[in-house]
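dumping these here so i dont lose them again. two proteins, back to back, each one seq then structure tokens. dont judge the mess
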Amino acid sequence: MEGLIGLMNRIQRACTALGDHGGGGDLPTLWESLPTIAVVGGQSSGKSSVLESIVGTDFLPRGSGIVTRRPLVLQLHQTDDGSQEYAEFLHLPKRRFTDFALVRQEIADETDRLTGKTKQISPVPIHLSIYSPKVVNLTLIDLPGLTKVAVEGQSESIVQDIENMVRSYVDKPNCIILAISPANQDIATSDAIKLAKEVDPTGERTFGVVTKLDLMDKGTNALDVLEGRAYRLQNPWVGIVNRSQADINRRVDMMSAREKEREYFESSPDYAHLASRMGSEYLAKLLSQHLESVIKARIPSITAVINKTIDELESELDTIGRAVAADPGAQLYTILDLCRAFDRVFKEHLDGGRPGGDRIYGVFDHKLPAAIKKLPFDRYLSVQNVKKVVSEADGYQPHLIAPEQGYRRLIGTGLTYFRGPAEATVDAVHAVLKELVRKSIGETEQLRRFPTLQAAIATAANEALERFREDGRSTALRLVEMEATYPTADFFRNRPHDAPAADASGKAGAKNPPAESQVPVDRYGDGHYRTIATNVSQYIRMVGDELMKTIPKAAVHCQVREAKRSLLNHFYVQIGKKEAGEFGHLLDEDPAMMERRQQCWKRLELYKSARDEIDSVAWSSGR
């Protein structure tokens, strides 16, 4: 059985393959909730040698200065004795490396692919899995070495950039810190310990490793550090003896180096009493045991993250919608169901459940009165124009008393001015309805995955709205024409048709003037035409007040009501006439949405599988 660490390795690898490895969102990803071990140290502190000692194989690039320029996520998988060891990169999933010199070259090449052949760094990790009988199940993250100065070819910010990158890992409470410090350096000046102390002041997440013990000056040792007197941690310090450069040049294999390291501690007068707790083999086992115990302790929180993410993914899939069925009948049902969903959203806008429908009332309450108020009746009913219209209506026989034909012509022509506001009202309602169709399509969640059907619904709805507009326009104009065609006679029966006569003193409008003081009315003077203009103006105002009530009724009846009742009726008829094979075209999905659903499904399967396997392994290992 692979155990908890082996299972976590697989889960982390699967998370990474799906791009689910942290960064963004309020919910921690599964990757972020899993414990990891970050290897931290200054440049040339011996980090690479420690990692290779743990693995038991040469596989890391070497050189002077900054060699590790991208994080290396190293997953170790213990295999059966006698099996061949090999390595796999996540970015080369179908290639298996058995020659570890090629692994070293691929790490260097993959680093250069992002950073170029420079000394710059990148936070994008390289993922490497090693399968070997010589390793224990373990996951380690090798980070760029901390430095104090930028060298030639590096940006001035490189020191801070590296520290920020390292902090992005070790700040996480699930991260175990493997702090590497060389023995020939005062522990008080150790970059790794300094950083570990800042992010883990209690020392419960930190393991201290002292390298290069064999290079200390004669007569000195690192016992104060290894025995926890110089700097106390809650976990034990471990001493390591790295391969010398001469050993590396002679290509002394790691197994021989391990044996040499073991002999060094057992024979050392300073460290013999600690020999059983020193060396790379002990370090690997210590870390593996600790990592497994941490994982076991974190199982409840890991499971909680998994369950919450499963709920969110299933909710997202419900929103995105399941994959479209291939059966034509099911496809037709889906199309009609989506149309009904759109129709519900559209009606909610009109009925006030969503914003937008109130703009139609704004057309009636503000735009229509404002348009009527701007009509040029003052110019039209000027004395000069009234005299002209009346004279033209009289023809060759001037009127004797009241110019009836002049009145009718002034009223009929004047009322035609209301055609403009009537048409503008219908057009404004049409524009609001079109906008509500556009918004409703965008707000219908189920439709978002089908751009072809969205376009078809938009086209059908707008064609229907165009028909409703024509009906509304003809109805509104008919209201105006009816008023112009048949004026209300009763309005004029009690109206004065002559200009008021002047009294003897020359003042107009004298009450009960004596008969001898009355003077003849001039039926062709300005006062007479002014009276006509006043009467016509009052009648037009009365009709205008009535049209401000009836034009909205026409728009609502012909446009709004019909949009609610039969917006997609014609579309349904067209759908019913389509061949069965044509339904699939309407349900063509946005490729981005298809990719989103596929990723959701993969993540959902991963999380469900992880939950089941974690539960199974946890119970079998003694939960």
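---- next one ----
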Amino acid sequence: MSLNEPSSFESARNAEAVNKSASQTSSATTTPNSSNSLIEPSEDSSLNNASGLFYGGECVTLTTETTNFSFRELWAFTGPGFLMSIAYLDPGNIESDLQSGIVAKFSLLWVLLGATLLGLAMQRLAVKIGVVTGLDLAEMCCKQYKTVPRLILWLMVEVAIIGSDMQEVIGTAIAIYLLSSKRIPLYIGVLITVLDTLSFLFLDKYKLRRLELLFGFLITTMAVSFGYQYIVTDIPQINVIEGMFLPWSSDYRPGTLLQAVGIIGAVIMPHNLYLHSALVKSRTINRNNVKEVKKANRYYFIEASIALAVSFVINVFVVSVFAHDVYGKTNQDVIDACSNSSFADDIISAFIANNYTADINIYKGGLVLGCFYGGLSMYVWAIGILAAGQSSTMTGTYAGQFAMEGFLNLQWARWKRVLFTRTVAIMPAFYVAFFSRLEDLTKMNDILNAVMALQLPFAAIPTVAFSSSLALMKADFVNGRLEKIISITLSFTVIGINLYFIVANLEQVNLTPLMIFGVVLFGTFYIAFNLYLLLHMMVNLGNKAVASNWAIKRFVLDNSHLFSNLNGNGM
């Protein structure tokens, strides 16, 4: 069965919804906006259509195995999870990793592990939406929310994508700067990212599996680069293991809590949920067959677990290297340690001679490794950063494409989409690179992590809502009561942690009265919009009292008839 065949669901719905879904099935020209069904896949969805832009329009045809588990089938499903995992390895995450090691040594590795497991739980819900319904998260939002909230949600997702793009731009520019021995200025490196992104567009002419192998090669490059440094550093393995599984340590220092919060904010990317729900649609699945859908969900979960395990190990490499080499050192200590190395002049110009904790970013990290272990380590580090920037480039490109097509049913040519997002991302980075110091360029990563943390509810809440909806997921795949409680608790925990991170950073800024007014105004809007999403989520969870309220029907629900006959007690 091809992906553009509509699914058949047994969820409770009234006769009107069934008739409208049947009408959609019989029409080959129905668009997402012209259909009132929240459930049936759009006939012209870019991922359901062989002419779509996703991976050149190619889908992997799966062969049915008789066994419950087959490595051959697992290999057929392998690809989307590793592309998703690239977002856990972008330059922003790498910088967060090294700062974690500097501030808290190995003692925050358990936070990194917990954040990765939390991300896996959220990715699993996003995968279920794409596999079961045949619609990705953005397409589902297009059908579920009213026009104005849907556009606001799309803008928030775009902000997260552009913020991620900027981190990739910064990381790539710094990597090129290091690899060229500072011969290529940062602003030229920023411009180069436009060209290398456009060059990726030509990869769509290759087969899907070859393209996925390219992403695997880039992940392998990161593993080898950062793993090399981990090996030559000769890190005590017992300290690494203790840091992963013992959530207490004598190494905690002022700033550790804020760094722990920053790790969670950097690891869990909001747009990654939209991306993963779309990527899983690249495999043909017979959604009328419950066993086949369950099998697909199982294999995707296994693949995502392996992919995130690999990304976790790579992140551990980075944390451990800087925990071993730089923890407890001040800026002056670093300058003194490198005074006789060939990097002495670079170190002196990069570090301020004082007794504060060493202030290191991905650029200074390369210099420090070059000073401690020789020039080869600096170049190997830069290659790893370059691979991180290049691989996450495609992650942002695909996420932006799926968001625009899903929310707006607007299918731009790929080059137009890339040119738009890259131009918006490059303008501020180019300005800082041309007119400011390198330090200002790297400090943008902290700001961007805070911006993306703000966007997390706009991905987490819809993901939990739709995967918990009996009307959308049908009885075989809807989240159970325990699963609902866990997913809601985890979502709000992450949201609360990220908001704390943002407030803590605001406290360090001297706000003018006008800035305070702007923060209050935005905060009011932010809270109000989250309340809207929460009310909509309560309806999806099966709360009949909320669903039957006239104000909710009028202002919140775009398709209230779908929830009028829900079976079950909900939450």
